[in-house]
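DM from R.C. (forwarded with permission)

"hey, sorry to bug you on a friday — could you get me a structure for this? deadline for the figure draft is monday and I only need the backbone to look sensible"
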Amino acid sequence: MENLNFKERYDRNFNTFSHENQQKLEASTVVVIGLGGLGGSVCEMLARVGIGKLILVDGDVFEVSNLNRQILSEERLIGVPKAEAAKDRVRAVNSGVEVIHRIEFLDEKNLYEHIKGSDVVMDCLDSIDIRFKLQDAAKKASVPIVSGAIAGVTGQVTTIFPEDKGYPLIYGEKSRKQMKGVETKTGNIAYCALFTAALQSSECVKILLNRGDLLRNKLLIAELWTNVFEVMDLV
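My reply, with the result:
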């Protein structure tokens, strides 16, 4: 399967992408941290678009409550590590992608080692505390972050470069020790997770190709009950 024709596989990527664009994606490394509602969908999309190397990190296993929204979860996979399922899905979708999976929970001790040398890190976490630690590690590693979060049917996305202020402008410094976001109270709906993951994936590709307008120093908030979409400047 590794010898599937490059042009045929990505035929529907052209002419949105040039052949040079596609080769750039193939030469890129992206780390996806958190493989639940957002991260599972992100790794699926990035595998299909043709990212050459994916590093997939999550220490958790699937639970029954994940089935409502997490695209990688299946009834037969309850109790299976999310990183293992993500690895298997990426290989099934695109055998040309180099995939590394790591069944680990993250903290300030191992974040840098997971993301150093990558081109983009995808923040698909559900802990505000770890987001702040991720930004510290990404700054040290000089790697941009694409961050997504969901609550109910509201999603938000932002892109943070190493020199940007980032999370303190969204959550405030007082939230640094807050373990969970508001989604623990509002629930999460499948179509909001998929929608937000698509926006994250788009930001990732734009960074890698240096093309298009980024949500850098901006926060996109989409509320799907009312179809209100707002892009806020972060200053």
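R.C.: lifesaver. The domain at 6-233 is CATH 3.40.50.720 (Rossmann fold).
me: no worries. The chain has a mean pLDDT of 93.
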